[in-house]
Amino acid sequence: MKRLCLPLVLIFCLLLSSCGSRVQAERFEQFSGNLATAASLSFRSQLRCEYEDRSVDFTLNYSGNSSGASVSVIKPEIISGVTGHVKPDSCTLEYDELVIDTGDLDRFGLSPMTALPAFVQALKNGHVDSYWEEENSFVYELCCDEHLTVRVWFNVLNMIPQKAEIVSDGQVKVFCQIENWTMG
How distant is the alpha carbon of residue 106 from its chain centre? Predict the structure, then answer.
């Protein structure tokens, strides 16, 4: 009888853990669907970008709607006010007659200015690869393609992104702190 109970208890535990994961995956899917249909999205982000030989900090504003999005530089002050425009479902920035090369963070074109559009695309279209909980946060690891993964920490109370890491080929290239998240 004892031999039969142990396997049944293990199966029950596995079923319970998969139910929790399914609920959290569904919770993310609901968030992602709401984001995809939102009329507007805006937030500010403090970024730390990891190049091969240095780290550089940026403060950027992201603002988007159904016709596209824009990323504006707040800091560093030397390029403050520069704004790039993103077409819907794209991560390519277009500047008004201005080109500023902030440098690529990986061999696939990830840069400080494309990081936030890539982050938003991951939230809309990424596949939940794994999920876990950390101190008042739900953490989702989203697969975007074979090179790019995004980890996002959501507030457990309101499912608002608090921070993220953009990982390229297994290395964290961008650390983001998210502020003033507003979906309309």
Answer: 17
Structure tokens at 53: 């030989």
What the block records as the tokens of 178 is 């998210």
Torsion of CA 152, 62, 172, 153, to 10 degrees: -10
Model-level pTM?
Answer: 0.81
Q: Report the alpha-carbon distance of residue 130 to residue 180 in Å, rounded.
A: 26
Digitized pLDDT (tens) for each residue of the chain, 184 residues in all: 555 544 444 444 333 344 456 787 899 999 999 999 999 999 999 999 998 889 999 999 999 998 888 999 999 998 888 888 876 655 555 555 544 445 566 666 788 888 999 999 999 999 999 999 999 999 999 998 888 999 999 999 999 999 999 999 899 999 999 999 999 9
Query: Quick one: CA dihedral 120, 126, 129, 132, positive or negative?
Result: positive
Cα torsion through 123, 124, 126, 128, rounded to 10: 70
Q: Where are the alpha helices (DSSP H) in the chain?
A: 2-37, 112-125
